Amino acid sequence: MSSVASAESAHSPEDGARLAGFGDVTASSSALRRFLHGLPGVDAVGLEARAAMLGTRSIKTTAKAYAIDLAISMIDLTTLEGADTPGKVRALCAKGIRPDPTDRTAPQVAAICVYPDMVAVAKEALGGSGIHVASVATAFPSGRAARSVKLADTAEAVAAGADEIDMVIDRGAFLAGRYLDVFQEIQAVKEACAREDGTRAHLKVIFENGELSTYDNIRRCSWLAMLAGADFIKTSTGKVAVNATPPNTLLMLEAVRDFRDATGVQVGVKPAGGIRTSKDAVKYLVMVNETLGDDWLSPDWFRFGASSLLNDLLMQRQKLSTGRYSGPDYVTVD
């Protein structure tokens, strides 16, 4: 980008008007640094205690059945392996459309998430199902590439039919304090999400919380990404040792709440990596409900990035329906 872009241009015209008060914050590198380092420090002990407390909440059978179906409908069913083939992607799409072939009442997933070269395959396989195609981009998972390469990666995925782009930030730039570089790159990727008809793919911005080291950095990164125009903020790639955790996800939930209070703009949250069981998924939904309320309890505003989670949700769903635990042989293997 040839000039410093302000927060007003990061969102739609309506959102830009609501973000007008933050134009000075992003007018220079020093101003952005002052703002981000002026955010309240995170009380790590309090954050972890609240996350642990919310994780002890139990829900009754009827509510559990609702939570399981809601969790299924929030899944970005994902395959991001070097060995991915068109056949594997088509099979994953079929599973996303009908997760439980024996029960047509099982909800569809929210999206199928693939590498850019598999977007066209997924788009064709999903047809008119209403399931979105999400694509990772910007040199996922490392983010180590020239900006021109990242923008081309994004534009090609969108041209192939991606409804959503999951980008990774340049963690090296962020940790080195080059916040404006990260801000401008997010804006540039958002511009690359535009289609010829004037619509655009939604942008999810991945932080890789396990590499940000501190809760303060996660809070700063959340605000930076939202000011730059993120439609969703996402915890992780799922490719490092520490991915989504209850405390780091809770911190991001609090950030989107505070951001909407300050700007009127609502941003979604996507924990990804390490969420494998129905029990885990329900804990996250309780956390969303207690922190944000009903406004975020929708696939439009909350997603799970997962592959193995769906099978456990289906097994628990079958148990609630039949009273018997069917086991992994009764669900398809991804």
Describe this structure in words.
The chain is of the alpha/beta class. It is built from 14 helices and eight strands. An eight-stranded parallel beta sheet has the order 7-6-5-4-3-2-1-8.
Brief summary:
The protein has 334 residues and is of the alpha/beta class. It has 14 helices and eight strands.
Q: Numbering strands along the chain, what is their spatial order in the largest sheet? A: 7-6-5-4-3-2-1-8
What proportion of the residues is helical, as a percent range? 40-55%
Average pLDDT works out at 92
Q: Helix/strand-derived class?
A: alpha/beta
Q: How much strand content do the residues show?
A: 5-15%
H/E element order = HHHHEHEHEHEHHEHHEHEHEH
Radius of gyration using CA atoms only: 19 Å
Q: What is the total tally of β strands?
A: 8
The number of helical runs is 14
Largest sheet: 8 strands, parallel
Shape: globular
User: Uncertain regions: pLDDT < 50 for 5+ in a row?
Assistant: 1-10
Distance between the termini: 41 Å
